[in-house]
Write a structure and sequence with these properties.
Elements (H helix, E strand, L loop, with lengths): L10 E5 L4 H12 L3 E6 L4 H13 L3 E6 L5 H15 L4 E4 L21 H22 L3 H4 L1 E6 L12 H25 L3 E8 L8 H4 L8 H8 L13 H8 L10 E4 L9
Helix pairs in contact: 1-2, 3-4, 4-6
Length: 271
């Protein structure tokens, strides 16, 4: 019987590859036989190189390219290089994104204190940092097919306090995911699929100041989050891997336009 989860030999491109989530996902998919091609900004070059070296030491295949997810010309140059070397892209993981403190509204502020430039930067990074790489790399998927996975958030489904810019941005990524799935399937056929993954609350360098105090203890925000998470804890980064594997494999061959939630039950909990 065919192994529906077999992804050996797949060529996978990943933006946002140098963070906690990106590193773990890239390493896992490489261990399953994917060739991982990591895209990073110039300032993250050393991190990307270290991830690639670690993957290779474990017997996996990986390389990195310097290209900002917002720079269409740079992405096109990288895409041309990848197509010349590998002939195709099977998987696109749009993991570039994140938040910045100035795009939040703290408890002692109101909307009239919002930093518009910070808000714009967060929206650009998350929405256009997903849209632009897709415009570039999906072209190579139209003919032979492929799977695109966008990174959504709990903010995709409901507004969360404080993270104003991030909430707007991730809601947009969710809408784009569903729209693009229908757009590509109806115009180019069933072989190219688009889905999203919405991680629950994971402790990362980006949200550490929101979720932990300087002494490492949980903030009031963290305690509220965990109180509304049925499994009673934060999600661990490696708990995303099975869902991502499913979305990029033939096991999800008829799945497109969905957002898979991995959040310990947070989205389903009310009171």
């Amino acid at each position: 019987m065919t192994d529906l989860f077999d992804i050996k030999g797949k060529i996978a491109v990943m933006t946002g590859s140098t963070g906690v989530l990106g590193k773990g996902i890239a390493s896992y998919l490489a261990s399953q036989g994917c060739t991982m091609l990591l895209l990073c900004r110039e300032q993250s070059k050393d991190k990307a190189e270290a991830i690639v070296e670690a993957i290779r030491e474990e017997g996996g295949k990986a390389a990195f390219h310097v290209a900002d997810a917002l720079d269409k010309a740079a992405l096109e140059a990288v895409c041309d290089s990848i197509m010349n070397e590998y002939g195709r892209v099977d998987i696109l993981l749009n993991a570039a994104g994140g938040n910045m403190a100035k795009a939040n509204v703290s408890p002692d502020q109101t909307i009239f204190d919002m930093d518009i430039e910070a808000m714009r930067a967060v929206v650009d990074l998350n929405i256009f940092g997903t849209l632009i790489p897709t415009m570039v790399f999906a072209k190579g998927m139209v003919e032979h097919g492929g799977s695109i996975v966008n990174f959504c958030s709990e903010s995709t489904f409901r507004p969360l306090t404080r993270v104003a810019g991030y909430g707007i941005a991730k809601a947009g990524v969710g809408s784009w995911t569903k729209w693009l799935a229908a757009e590509l399937a109806t115009k180019f056929g069933e072989k190219i699929r688009v889905n999203g993954i919405a991680p629950g609350f994971i402790l990362t360098n980006q949200n550490r100041t929101l979720l932990t105090n300087p002494d490492g203890s949980l903030t009031d925000r963290s305690r509220k989050i965990i109180a509304h998470t049925p499994i009673g804890r934060f999600v661990e980064p490696e708990e995303l891997l099975g869902t991502i594997h499913y979305l990029v494999s033939d096991a999800s061959k008829a799945v497109t336009g969905t957002i898979s939630v991995v959040d310990g039950g947070f989205e389903s909990f009310t009171i």
